[in-house]
Amino acid sequence: MEFTYPYPEKILVKIKEVEESYISNAELAETLCKELIEIGRQNQDDQLLGFVYYHFALIDYYKNQHRDFQKNLILGLKHQLKASASELLAKSYNVLGTTAMFATNNSQAMDYFMTGLRYAEEQGVRDMIGIINGNIGNIYRDLSDHQSAITYMKRSLEDTERHPDSFNEKISLALLYCNLAACFLDLRELSMADSWFNKIKAEHTVHEDIQVSMNVFEIRYFHKMGDTIQREQALQRLIAFLETADFSWNVFDDIFSLCEFLQEKEQVDSLLQILSALDKMLSESTFTKFRQRSLSYKIYCYQQKELNQKLSAAYMEHFDLTKQLEQETAIGIKNDIKLREELETVRAEHQKIQSEHLLLVKKSCQDFLTSLPNREWLDDHLSQVFERARDKQVPMALEVLDIDDFKYVNDTLGHQDGDRYLLALSSRLYELFDKEVFCARQGGDEFVIVYENKTKEEVLSIAQELQRDIRRLSLATADSRRNPPLTISQGICQFIPDIGKTIDHYYQLADQALYRVKNQSKNGIYLTSI
User: Fold this and answer.
1) What is the SS3 assignment for 306?
2) Measured between alpha carbons, how far is 296 from 312 in angstroms, rounded to an integer?
């Protein structure tokens, strides 16, 4: 990922090594992470700490250390929120979603994925948007909602196909093609399934997980086509591959879906061959649910073949695994509850950080005395309204107004009474605010009103009402003497933006209109419409 902080080259090298080695060389990655944590703590660098704890969590995930995984992921989230590191937040919630999906908790997984998607979209992190949409598609596929699955997978393709030369992107593309092919196969749209499957072959991407998914698809595809010879050949290729290849646990859903398919078709011998090929990997696994599920299929096969001795041993082992799984499930539920509590704490902290940030932004864009939007906020709002009006060719108006004889009030009565005039006018301007009228203090006694999508008559009516209300105000001095009346001069330019002109052009016209009022009698309105 890209880091916004200007790190020295030696730190950037460590960061890159962590990204490249956390799966292939966990020991090296852990050593580097510990070094980076010290650097992050010394510099109070939340972005770096968020990055390191996220990768510590990934290392724990691949080592099946559930408790450490949760602890480090939560630590990472806290630092990422402080640093507003949207890309890392998206990645963290994507990992939470995949672990929940792995535990067959699709509802919780969807919640995590949607949160991650919001963070990814916030910063336009297209590769993460693609990954998360692909994972949401897999949830819908698991729920047999194939149309929704296809919709999300195609959304994922829009982003995944942006960088087709990257090896990781090629892997993601091939897996997406395979999942889309499987969805259309389930919908019995064989020509579409065949079309997507051929895209995988065109990628020429060699990866163990993809090979497994391709073999599983071929077996089911040839069965639906009624081609038993090719189905059997594909099955033998898969069995040979499972006995020798080093594939990840991520493809076990595909393998077990094939086992379920073979059981439904009463292909007992083929099912036993698959289960036998998985034995070595499962014997080394700490995933009890995989071993139990494999054993359930074996029990079915032993029943069909009346292998009573094996059946009896399988029942006993299945009973032990069931008890073990119940214990692990209970621990898992406790861990998940704790995780949710900690996530809620993190979310509450994030909301507090966001609220404080918004308050600071608001204060920085407000005029200190009147609390009206200041010039910076005005410039930002004005450019947005101008762009909308120019693009849609609808009217807008700019009003520049100031207080008549304000210098006299300040110099004669004092700045305290001058502030009373400013606050009185500002209070009335606040009442004008709505979605199409925006008021701001430009500086000194000068104010600006921006009218959006209003006719000349509507603008003039609002300006005249403001003038009348200001005349009615009666202001007392600090020592209870009556002040001179508060009046204002208003210059307005109402227009539909010309494609070749900038907002400055129209602002000058409004300013000229104000000076025309000043040079005549003050306490008046002049509106120019072009």
Assistant:
1) coil
2) 13
